[in-house]
Amino acid sequence: MKRAIVLLSGGLDSTTCMALADSEGYKICALSFDYGQRHKRELQSSIKVAEYYRVESHKIIKLDNLGGSALTDLALDVPDYNGSNSIPITYVPSRNLIFLSYAGGLAETLNAQAIFIGVNALDYSGYPDCRPEFINAFKEALRFGTKKGIEGTPIEILTPLINLSKSEIVQLACKHKAPLNLTTSCYRGGDKACGTCDSCILRKKGFKEAGMPDPIEYV
Amino acid sequence: MKRAIVLLSGGLDSTTCMALADSEGYKICALSFDYGQRHKRELQSSIKVAEYYRVESHKIIKLDNLGGSALTDLALDVPDYNGSNSIPITYVPSRNLIFLSYAGGLAETLNAQAIFIGVNALDYSGYPDCRPEFINAFKEALRFGTKKGIEGTPIEILTPLINLSKSEIVQLACKHKAPLNLTTSCYRGGDKACGTCDSCILRKKGFKEAGMPDPIEYV
Questions:
Q1: Which residues of B touch A144 (CB under 8 A)?
Q2: Model pLDDT, residue B73
Q3: Where are the domains of chain B?
Q4: Interval B30-85: pLDDT, tens
Q5: For the domain A3-210, what is the CATH code?
Q6: Are A93 and A69 in contact (CB under 8 A)?
Q7: Are B87 and A133 within 8 A, CB to CB?
Q8: B39, B66, B134, B206: which could join A145 in a potential S-S bond, CB 3.0 to 4.6 Å?
Q9: Interval B84-94 mean pLDDT
Q10: Three-state DSSP class for A28?
């Protein structure tokens, strides 16, 4: 029996990871976080995607908001995409570190062999905790810090999207018939996607380059 | 201006870390966790210790309980100390990983240079996430996963107790006049310490070998 924790935000990337975990025969425990994000509606998407895949369980963990980001501090505006190379104000300090740490604890508790996370470091917002260097270092921390690691069966961290472009992710999702109509990507979190924040721009670019229609609505 | 996050459980080790951070001139942000631990009274100790040191701030983060440990699952009994080398049932999967991840996020948000954590791997309960191998791997994950790391000023993880015996920790605490009367170590969490769980046995051993009286009450 193979079991995996799938980090599920309810967006395009994590839903593609769900499709992959499902196609590989894992029993899936979906893990989502209510961390004070302004785009809380993504949690509704995560619930729908988890139901679609008939997961074994779906945990939504409430995390105290640490602030310091336009995604969690309503006093800061989400900027439009500007193509800058610097780390944007939507960066949430330690977000993937905390998410993966929780996933690691849950993997020990539920005896899961793997964690799927949909990070990618190509068409991305420049967050440090989406890069392979971070993921590789985290694998080591998890290996040394857990019972499974000590016992010689370390929890795997699977990042199937890490080297894919957004267009390749869309193609992969479509190949696996992922329910992209249920997903939400917009940082601004309105009923319709804004179409101009980093996340919307990357998503639209992905669909356009893949030659596929994006099934969600934009303002 | 030096600022540090000090992980503060309210026990002997973390209070000794507070004393060290204070003596080194750091402005201190104490960080504690309400993670469903049965010995929740340690949080009261953490509040008293934080007040004693007049910290800049004290954050108590509520974490959803992931289960899988006698410290968080009331259906499991806390065993008496048995001297075994295996990882005990009081092990909480990913606890220090989650604590340090939060501390890393807070260090970014508050612009702190260092995190103090009172792990030690000599007179300890055998938890994998108290060992130097884990701490060193985590340092790398934090370095690669944060803005401060990318900018060349990585957050330091300071573990001043990691190679000390419990007796040496007691001596160090006394040298720095740490308020050990305010601390709580017992896993069973009663009004008086049980004196027989792993944590009580290690604490009593430390005071005895240091030739110092333990100022807290035992049943």
A1: 128-129, 131, 133-134, 137
A2: 85
A3: 3-210
A4: 999 998 888 889 999 999 999 999 999 999 999 887 777 888 888 888 888 887 87
A5: 3.40.50.620
A6: yes
A7: no
A8: B134
A9: 85
A10: strand
